[in-house]
Amino acid sequence: MVGFTKKINDAVANSIVGKRFRLDGSGHRKSRENARFLTEIRAGLATFFAMAYIISVNATILTDSGGTCVCTDATDPTCAKDVDYNLCLGVIRRDFITGTAAISALTSFCMGLFANMPIALAPGMGLNAYFTYTVVGFHGLGPVSYRLALTAVFVEGFVFVGLSLFGLRQWLARVIPASIKLASGVGIGLYLTIIGMTYSAGIGVITGATSTPLELAGCLAEDIVDGVCPGSAKMRSPMMWIGIFCGGFLTAILLAYKVKGAIIAGILLVSIISWPRTTSVTYFPYTEVGNDNFDFFKKVVTFHGIQKTLGVNDWDIGGVTGQFGLAFITFLYVDILDCTGTLYSMARFAGAIDEETQDFEGSAVAYLVDAFGISIGSLFGLSPVTAFIESGAGISEGGKTGITAMVTGICFFISIFFAPIFASIPPWATGCTLIIVGAMMASAAKDINWRYWGDALPAFITLAVMPFTYSIAYGLIAGIISYMIINTTTWLLEVISGGRIVVPDKELREPWTWKIKGGLLPQWIVRAVSGKKDFWREHEHVVSASPDDGSVGEPAEKRTPTVVSSDAEPKDPNKAETKLA
């Protein structure tokens, strides 16, 4: 068996595929060590099973926006019990499932094919919640309409194209203080946790209250009175307990044992328990909406075309309010932090980061794939697409090339035809998933610089304001402003006093600069300015520094090699001289 797999790996490595993706043994000068074809396939499957939950979770969250459904109930602006409105929501949920699987397939495959990175993409968690609950609002009660919000996402994607081409995206991501960036991830994690505890997209363990902002719930939805659960009915919902034990604790135990696909396993178990119609936890009650959902579920394998959310962007932005601009800026900023941070962390995990330029191979193409994916996704009716941290599951399995991402993309494409299964996953099956994802994101809190007040307080304000105001934008604004006020004030006092008034623990402050090591401009611009004719190609090879160049005694990492371009004249290797920059 080992000999058979070795033959396959060697055959692919020696083919044009091996050279294109730089597999180990391909003979490419930049082949990636231990990159094997069959390992890449296994890694792609691991990534898919780690992030397949996004298909149902994203659809559940976006459905709460109401999409293009119109509420005509004059007494209840949310149309929570309107049959026609809920039937419409069932259709757009299926649209979102198809759209999520399709854009995930397209962007992941393109990331692998063009950027040769083992990183998969899909509509981002946190951004979908911000899109639904803050920008559009629950069932369309927010400040920006669903159609106009899609336009903001579309425009943001093309702004990203420009930022990516000219290297500004990298600069914008790094100019934000590290403490704020870390706290943003934690805050979004807490934000997702609250959503996972609600009724509409979670297990229903909390609800709004009158005397307090939140209150313990856990009753059946039909037992809620004036938005709260009666004391005698609290924590009596069987769906909530199924979600907690089978979707929460079981998933956590599987994660503790590092079982691949643990999250999707928990979701599927709760869903299977909820599918029989005769139980008290059924997702298909004998109602008009339940019958419609069950009829679609029985198809099992079918293609559901996007009916109500395809190309519905509102291009008339003449009378838009400031909320549209705020949504656009927030999408832009959070995407810069989220996708760029994920791309860099996954590239570092895969060992692809250049320590001198702090860049990775194919970064410009990777950013462009993400940027175009955002705009295309908006045409599918979706919130912004971003790189997924779950790509680490594939990388940990040995994924090092774009073949990993391409396999993940193919799996997402196949899942399009299983829309009836993904459309029948109840919210209590995914609620604990959101809480678990929130816990994963909150782990970044340990890296925040809590030792210096000028870093710690802005970070805490950022992560606290996000969940408490149900807005990523407000958290970022509060954190950045507080950072500027505290640190600018201490700097001015030091300057005005001539250095006599200095913060005692100034040496503990996290360094901040707008400068980027390796330069602001991307390498393709540097090559074009230097006169390289095929500036879109990297330099051909690197000549190592020799002991005779004056660098004897210096550590190898401090020696700067000479880069010889492909259009340089060939030289006798015995006479070649290496100059230090």
General description of the model:
The protein is mainly alpha-helical and 581 residues long. Helices cover 54% and strands 4% of the residues. The protein contains 21 helices and 8 strands. The strands form 4 sheets. A two-stranded antiparallel sheet has the order 1-6. A two-stranded antiparallel sheet has the order 2-3. It has a two-stranded antiparallel sheet with strand order 4-5. Helix 4 packs across helix 5 (83-115), helix 9 (178-197) packs parallel to helix 19 (453-469) and helix 9 (178-197) packs antiparallel against helix 20 (472-496). The longest helix has 33 residues, at 83-115. The radius of gyration is 26 Å and the shape is globular. The two termini are 50 Å apart. Residues 541-581 have low confidence and may be disordered.
Which secondary structure elements does this structure contain, and how are they paired or packed?
Layout: H1 2-13, H2 16-21, H3 37-51, H4 53-63, H5 83-115, E1 121-123, H6 127-136, H7 146-165, H8 168-175, H9 178-197, E2 206-208, E3 214-216, H10 238-256, H11 262-274, H12 288-297, H13 322-349, E4 353-354, E5 359-360, H14 363-379, E6 385-387, H15 391-396, H16 402-415, H17 419-422, H18 427-442, H19 453-469, H20 472-496, H21 523-529, E7 541-543, E8 562-564
Helix pairs in contact: 3-16, 4-5, 4-6, 4-18, 5-12, 5-14, 5-16, 7-13, 7-14, 8-13, 9-18, 9-19, 9-20, 10-11, 10-18, 11-18, 19-20
